[in-house]
Amino acid sequence: MCATIGTAVAAGALAAPARSAADCPGTGADPTCPWTAATTVGSRADGTFRFPQAVAADAAGNVYVGDHYTGVIQVFTAEGTLLRQFGRNGTGDGELGQIGGIAVDPASGDVYVVDSETDRIMQFAAGGTFRRSVGGRGTTAGTFDFPSGPDAASPAGGGIAIANGAVYVADSGNDRIQRLSITAAAGGVDASTAVVLPIVGLLVPMGLAVTPAGVYVADDDNHRLILADEATGVVKAATAPGALDFPYGVAVDPAGNAYVANNNTTSANNRVAVFGPPAGDGTFGPPTVPTTGWGSFGTAVGRFSFPRDIAINPANGQILVADTANNRIQAFDGVGTPVAQWGASGRAPGQFTSPQRMSVSPFGDLLVADTYAYRAQVLGLDGTFGLATRTTMVTPGGVTDDHLLGAADAAYAPDGTIVVLDTRSPRIVRYDTDGRQVAAYPTPVRTTAASVRGGIAVDAAGNIWISDPIGDRLLQFDAGGSQIAATGSSGSAPGQFDDPEGVRIDPEGNVWVADAGNNRVQKLSATGQPLLSLTYPGTSPPDAAASIALDGQGHVFAASATRHRVVQMNATTGAQVARFGTRGTAAGEFLRPLGVAVQCDGTLVVADTDNNRLQRFTLAAAPANACRERPASPVPPDPTVPTTPTVPATPTTPAPPVTTTPTTPTTPTVPPASPKPAPRPAKIALRIGAATTKTLTRRTIRLTVGCNVRCALTVRGTLKASLGGPAVRLGGVPTTALTVQGGRARTVTFTVPRAAAATLARRLTRRGRKGLVLAVTVRATRTGAKASTRNQTFRLVA
């Protein structure tokens, strides 16, 4: 929806709507809206997969697929024809985040879904109507702790199965299996009936299957499949050491053959392993089908890339495999012969996986940071795609020189090359016009795997500007990647920032910044002096702009991920002119839009991030001079502005938050920040008090860290045997600081290097005692305050 808004406003502040929102464009109560109806580029779901990690089948043979990046359950016939889809990305009732598992109740047809992002079990009717949710994060019965993450290295956890009138859940983060009854009184799963099965020794259990013989568990971090007695927890059978490596999903056929999705990151273990019924001696016997497994790493039919889940279709006996990183479902007969596959890849040209910020070239092409497709894409002015070499710049594959880990934004340079801000590397990567990497520059800006943030823009001189959301500043680099300036600090005064994200540069060389945490857009001179602040009205949640765009008619467009809309403002007064969108999945509706751009013909393009698509709003009459996002020729700096910004020791009258007639001050009028309270680490606590053997087997240690005020925490840790020997430095925690709000806590996960874990295990064995010492150092910093450090030691004993 687009709505024209009243224009009588105070200077610099967005106006509240003067009347109710009208339908837009041009077909309802507001025929003056100049934009035509929205058209979409890319599919939200509709048979397209983006990291499918869950698969199940009902009694009629219909196949249910849970897709990691869409929050959608797609339902297909056994042959792969799309029947329907339900769910959308989010955290509310009926909304799904990262889908870790699916099961279908054979009695009612209801569909149960593990939402790893919110640690809940969601129940839907067969047609997709939401019924209820149970759970939430916790350790008591009826609550869960499911792992979740954005990529292959950190899958969504939580297996699920239905049998005996109950829902069985692999509570992966709590290392246990829970059973919840399905009752008529509850109308489905009843959280009050939850019990923990007495199966001990599990390490991140993932897949589940329940048969009359017992409970099959894909015991992921113990690298084994077990069959346990449901009542006693006694393990009846287990695979031999080395038979599996990070098994994820398991399914059992009527003859007792167990099919396991073996999901290691190494290419040798991307396969399906098959084990027979229990042999009676604590092991599994040979399978009754003529195969012990099939598949290997690859993209061809019958090969896999991170097979995450597996199910047996009761209607035809086919084995269904969620071939996750290949974005498809493969079906096999009982001996491993491929019989069908389906699913369009969300990484194909013209499809998107969490698209974020965008830029426009001088000739109208649109450059999109296609974040979790690990690439950038180029679209023509008409929304079609150019050459594949320009479209697909990189492919997923890990930390190597020619791969992106999380493209937050991309921009054109004056020489026609493309620069991409990869905040998970962290670095700036430069590509030529054919999509070939020509340079890479490290940066101090880094965000977490779960939150890729930051913006990038290039000025007429070729200098690169990037935002640092964690450091609350802008950084400037020359064309060769050397840092030449830093602008801003934490705060709300003009020229200060709180979570700055999108960045744009206008033809005059001014820098526009989406100052998300301060609920405003700031305009700075080419040397970083504050010129203008456009503040949003008091809304809840606020319009925290994640991205901004400029047109040639004196407007700023801001994409608000929190309110799922785009706002058009007067670039001088901040008066709200129009707004687009509301929360939803239909055309003209958005889910967490993180990008916005204006093409040369005035077309407004919105990166509808959680709907995995772009939406284009075209002007009925294209204006002249609509390209404003990159200057055509170098613009010299204003000689009246010092090249090195300074703040006077004795401030003049503080600058107002909004300047009605923007001017460039000869002397900054920003008052110095008031003294801030010194930060101190308020808490360091083991989130999982693990035994030594568990620590070394899992190779992860989770902690919660906090601060008394908003601060940045740097966390370091070492591990050593309690009776001596060298300490091992732990990895996994970002080398840059973590931003923590006052009184809140963040969870960090240390990883023990594989070789170090083996060395420590041998040292413990030689000394005849199982004990480790974990030493943690947390340093808290805050701009304008003295840093403080806290050291704490934990003893981990078996």
List keywords for this structure.
single chain, 5-stranded antiparallel β-sheet, 3 domains, 798 residues, Neuraminidase, disordered N terminus, Immunoglobulin-like, mainly beta
Detail the poorly predicted runs: 1-23, 386-401, 627-675, 687-691
Structural shape: globular
Distance from first to last alpha carbon:
60 Å
CATH fold naming of the largest domain: Neuraminidase
What is the CATH superfamily of the largest domain? Answer: TolB, C-terminal domain
Number of helical elements = 3
Strand order of the largest sheet: 1-50-49-48-47
Task: Tell me the quaternary state.
Answer: single chain
> How much helix is in the residues?
under 10%
* Rg for CA atoms: 28 Å
Q: SS-based structural class?
A: mainly beta
Protein name: SMP-30/Gluconolactonase/LRE-like region domain-containing protein
Signal peptide: 1-21
Organism: Paraconexibacter sp. AEG42_29
GO molecular function, one term: zinc ion binding
Describe the structure.
Keywords: Repeat, Signal. It comes from Paraconexibacter sp. AEG42_29. GO terms for molecular function: zinc ion binding. This protein is mostly beta strands. The chain has 3 domains: 287 residues, Neuraminidase; 298 residues, Neuraminidase; 117 residues, Immunoglobulin-like. Helix content is 3%, strand content 39%. The chain contains 3 helices and 61 strands. The strands form 16 sheets. Strands 1-50-49-48-47 form a 5-stranded antiparallel beta sheet, with no helix packed on it. Strands 14, 15, 16, 17 and 18 form a 5-stranded antiparallel beta sheet that branches. Strands 56, 57, 58, 60 and 61 form a 5-stranded antiparallel beta sheet that branches. β44 and β45 form a beta hairpin. The protein is globular. The N terminus is likely disordered.
